[in-house]
């Protein structure tokens, strides 16, 4: 399970700047896809070394937000109360304010482990800035500049040291496809999971070793083995408090991290909402294989179906490599096709490549359309080799690769996708200068 770190602080101290610094550390691999909401309160920090963790920007802790923003802020505050670690962010230029004191009181009550982060210390005396907050009484305080990425590495070391050790994960069975059903509340996740578990004469068993929070169920279907990873849908809705259980973004991110194939459920009658796009963005960032399950198809008239088809293909154009399956969780229709799509996505995501076939694909793509000349220089692509699965990753060696435009990476992506018949999985390229 991913541990979680919450950023807490009054407005304008630089929380979202720090959030970006933490969640976009592997810039090269996280592309900006049009259609993905980047205005997020939740992200995952992935480091070259050290386990990933969820970062929560609690946004307006002041609590004056209304409507949806208020709901998000409330959820963020609740998440901070459950976070493994809180980063209390303050402004090193402005010094302590009354609002900082309020937050200090709140944090004492919340009783979570806290690191004090004194931000905006670029170009000022960091020690004096730290001293200004000494009366807060935190043993661990860090002077950083989120905007200039100064002090972030030391902060990250301290964060990693304080996160709980990796709990014992249930043993992984390589023959089992790990699937997570994710999506907003009320799209029909529990209905679907209950339908899947109920209709099949299969062996459904709670996987031993999982904690209360991490519920997984093993499933055999059409001669294949699956492990359904923790989602709200897996919880039995017998108890009242479970029935009203809130949509948990942290749990969604955790489920995405643990799965190989994420099935994002969308309510056909509501189309693709911002929250759907945000969950999709999390799947893309994690590089997981993706299947879109468009649920409640039964409730639509022919006219509505046509409208919905048009809307979906527009809104989901940025993930047009993913299969969208129309289902009705209520009636159990489309499930066979859904599992076929899961199987295909998993097959593509874990396909093994030889260096020879990858280099050959690169040569053909390069000859058909070499990269554009930038300021008199043309990037050269020499050879490629496989660099990992789930998602399939291709390492391309060459020269002047810094001037490769994103459109060219997209061209390579589409070319490789087509050539290797990859469906339902993101594809990544890593560019390496020289041999
Ligand atoms: P939030 O309201 O706490 O999320 O704060 P923001 O991240 O939106 O930052 C508020 C303002 O402070 C913005 O104008 C940022 O550019 C600026 N800022 C954030 N971090 C730094 C920093 O490390 N140094 C300086 N000089 N400015 C910063
Ligand atoms: P969850 O919050 O994502 O787990 O959603 P639920 O499974 O609790 O479903 C939310 C509501 O949508 C319930 O009232 C379901 O009966 C209804 N629902 C779920 N699947 C379907 C479906 O395929 N068709 C229709 N018409 N309603 C559905």
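^ Assign residues to that structure.
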């Amino acid at each position: 399970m991913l541990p979680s770190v919450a950023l807490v602080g009054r407005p304008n101290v630089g929380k979202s700047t720090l959030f970006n610094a933490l969640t976009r550390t592997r810039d090269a691999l996280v592309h900006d896809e049009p259609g993905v909401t980047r205005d997020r309160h939740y992200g995952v920090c992935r480091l070259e070394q050290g386990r990933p963790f969820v970062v929560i920007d609690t946004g307006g802790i002041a609590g004056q937000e209304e409507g949806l923003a208020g709901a998000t802020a409330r959820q963020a505050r609740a998440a901070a109360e459950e976070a493994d670690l809180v980063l209390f962010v303050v402004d090193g230029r402005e010094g302590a304010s009354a609002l900082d004191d309020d937050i200090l009181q709140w944090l004492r009550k919340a009783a979570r482990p806290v690191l004090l982060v004194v931000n905006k210390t670029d170009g000022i005396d960091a020690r004096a800035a730290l001293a200004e907050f000494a009366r807060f009484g935190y043993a661990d305080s860090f002077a950083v500049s989120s905007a200039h990425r100064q002090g972030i590495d030391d902060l990250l070391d301290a964060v990693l040291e304080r996160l709980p050790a990796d709990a014992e994960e249930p043993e992984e069975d390589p023959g089992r496809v790990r699937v997570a059903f994710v999506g907003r509340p009320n799209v029909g996740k529990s209905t679907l999971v209950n339908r899947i578990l109920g209709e099949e004469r299969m062996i459904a068993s709670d996987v031993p070793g999982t904690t209360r929070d991490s519920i997984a169920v093993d499933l055999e279907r059409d001669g294949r083995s699956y492990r359904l990873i923790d989602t709200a849908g897996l919880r039995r809705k017998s108890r009242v408090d479970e029935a009203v259980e809130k949509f948990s973004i942290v749990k969604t991110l955790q489920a995405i991290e643990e799965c190989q194939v994420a099935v994002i459920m969308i309510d056909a009658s509501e189309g693709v909402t911002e929250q759907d796009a945000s969950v999709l963005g999390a799947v893309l960032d994690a590089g997981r294989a993706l299947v879109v399950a468009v649920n409640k198809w039964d409730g639509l008239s022919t006219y509505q179906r046509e409208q919905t088809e048009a809307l979906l293909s527009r809104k989901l154009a940025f993930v047009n490599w993913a299969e969208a399956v129309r289902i009705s969780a209520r009636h159990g229709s489309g499930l066979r096709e859904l599992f076929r799509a899961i199987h295909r996505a998993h097959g593509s995501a874990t396909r093994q490549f030889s260096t020879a076939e990858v280099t050959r694909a690169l040569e053909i793509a390069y000859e058909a359309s070499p990269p554009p000349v930038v300021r008199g220089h043309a990037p050269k692509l020499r050879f490629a080799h496989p660099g990992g699965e789930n998602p399939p990753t291709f390492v391309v060696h060459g020269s002047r690769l810094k001037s490769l435009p994103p459109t060219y990476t997209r061209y390579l992506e589409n070319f490789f996708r087509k050539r290797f018949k990859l469906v339902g999985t993101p594809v990544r390229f890593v560019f390496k200068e020289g041999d």
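The pocket of guanosine-5'-diphosphate (ligand 1) is lined by residues 9, 11-17, 119-120, 122, 145-147 (CB under 6 Å).
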